Every structure is written in C-alpha cells, then in structure tokens.
C-alpha cells in the first residue's frame, strides 16, 4: 500500500511539474507577442504593407494583370496559413484571365499585426479598406477559403455594390446562425477557447501547445494532420509543398498571433449577419466530402442566396480531397477556376 502511495505521489508531482513547465513556457510565448517585421524578408517575399488609421500594419500581395483597368479580385486564405499561399494559387490564373489579384494576410499571420479579441465585422474597414485605398481599387470581387469566408462575406456586407462578386469556398457560418437554422458548425469549434479564457494565466499551456504545433513542429505536424484526415492529399505534392511553405511563413513573427486568432469568438462570433449580403454574383463551392466544414452549410448558402435573387454557381463535388478539393487539379487552371466563375457571373 505504501509503495502504491509513493508511486501515485511521484506521478502527481510529475504531472504538476509538466503542467507548470508547459504553462510557464506558454506564458513566455504569450508575453513575447509578435516580433518586429523583417523588412528585407518582406521585400524578398514580394509582400507590401498598408497601415490603417490605428497604426496596425497589414501585409498583402499583388499579382496577375498589371493593367490598371483590369477587374480586381481579393483572395482570402484560411486558418494556419498566410496571404502568399493565395498568391501562389491564383497568380497564373489571374494573369491568364487579365485580372488583378490581391491576397491579404489575416491578423496575426505572416507580417500582419495581430489584434486581440477582434471582430470579423471590423475587418473590411480596418484591414481591407487601407489596402484598397493604397492600391486605388474601387469595385472588386472577393473569394475566401475556410476561415477566409467570414472575411469575404464581411467585405460583401460592408462594401455593398463595390463588391461585384463573392466566391465562397468551403464556407462556415457564425455560431448564432448555425444554431438558428439547425446546421452543425465547423468541426471542433466547441473545443476552442474564448479570448477572455486565453487572457487567463492559467491558459498559458494553450499558447505552448499552439507554439509546438504551428511553429516548432511545423510544417510537418500540420501537414500530417491534414493528410491523416484526408489521405489523398498526400498524392498532390504540389499542393502539400505550397501549404507547407505557407504554414512556416504564417508564424514568421511568432505563434502568439495565430493563437489569439484561434479564439472561438474571433472565429465564430462575427458581429454581422451574412444574410444581409446583397451581392448578386455568388459562387459557392463546397465539396460533398468536406469533413471540416459540413457541406450542408454550402448547400444552405447556395439555396438562400438563390432565393434572394442572386445568380449562384454551386459546386459540391466528391473527389476524395474534402476541404481542399478546389485547391488542386483542374481547379488550378484558369478555365475551371473560381475566378473564372465570378468573371462569368459578372457579365
């Protein structure tokens, strides 16, 4: 009995020690925040910076057509990556279709300054508008993949007629709306911590876990998670190479920004109702085998906007690539791209 108690005591001490080490490590990561921008690396990557009225710096990339009269499309990335990924995916498409592309890194990713506890509804004014102003853009189309969708929808809602096309690729919906219409939300959302929870020193361990997964063991760990959920993705080395480089670049200023961006309220409490969108040229591409964002969401959005009078291009293929179906294969060619679908709908 005494031996058993000794063993339990040692186990308890070990667990407490691990918890303290992980928590302290996370608090260090949290307190460091974001490092300074490496301007030489920024230029080498082909990125640009805009500064908003509050002094926050927003990273973005310009690609495709250099014709000042060419239509403009904004391509928004999902969680864990940054704007250069969208440039890599869309630059040849935009060049061929004579479209000017702009990809913006979301707060906390790449070189964009983070904003703790931000609301998606504020993003069009705080991040997108400075980029549009700096680049002299009036009307534009916008696409989003995964977490990029809330920002694309927020832009359509905020800018109204200035947004001539909206492309939703593997979309999700805010918590209040999924509950109202009875659709299951994106996978794992209920396990995420809120901004207020992350502010507690007792949640320091969360920052350490995110540091391990998005920084220290990246890109191998994020890529292995993707291929474990969707094994066929391992076949597409071009796509995994692009995503791997973007996972690495997403945390060039540290993983703290990425962690704050994972807060449940940031991801799922948007601060606006997407049903207020008035854009009439909409594409909803949501794979039928998407296990990350339930395809019922895409089907609901397509039906809702169609009933609202929009011209909706809806795709729901099952090709074995789930959440990343439209990032590969024929969809990387101009004639089959989301950009082309929005251009056709604009005519």
What does this structure look like?
- The protein is built from 14 helices and eight strands.
- It has about 350 residues and is of the alpha/beta class.
- It has a single domain, classed as Rossmann fold.
- Strands 1-2-4-3-5-6-7-8 form an eight-stranded mixed beta sheet, sandwiched between helices.
- α3 links the parallel β3 and β4.
- α1 packs across α8 and α3 packs across α10.
- The longest helix is centred in the first third of the chain and has 31 residues.
- It is globular.
Describe, in short, the structure shown:
The chain has 347 residues and is an alpha/beta fold. 46% of the residues lie in helices and 13% in strands.
- Here the CATH topology equals Rossmann fold
The N- and C-terminal alpha carbons lie at a distance of: 81 Å
Query: Which residues sit in consecutive blocks of at least 5 with pLDDT less than 50?
Result: none
Tell me the count of domains.
1
Proper CATH architecture: 3-Layer(aba) Sandwich
Superfamily (CATH H level) name:
Alpha/Beta hydrolase fold, catalytic domain
What percentage of residues falls in helices of 4 or more residues? 40-55%
Mean pLDDT: 95
Secondary structure: number of strands: 8
Radius of gyration: 21 Å
Query: What is the string of helix and strand elements?
Result: HHEEEHEHEHEHHHHHHHEHEH
Number of helices: 14
Strand content: 5-15%
Strand order of the largest sheet: 1-2-4-3-5-6-7-8
Q: Which class in CATH terms?
A: Alpha Beta
* Anisotropy-based shape: globular
Instruction: Please give the largest β-sheet.
Output: 8 strands, mixed
Specify the structural class.
alpha/beta
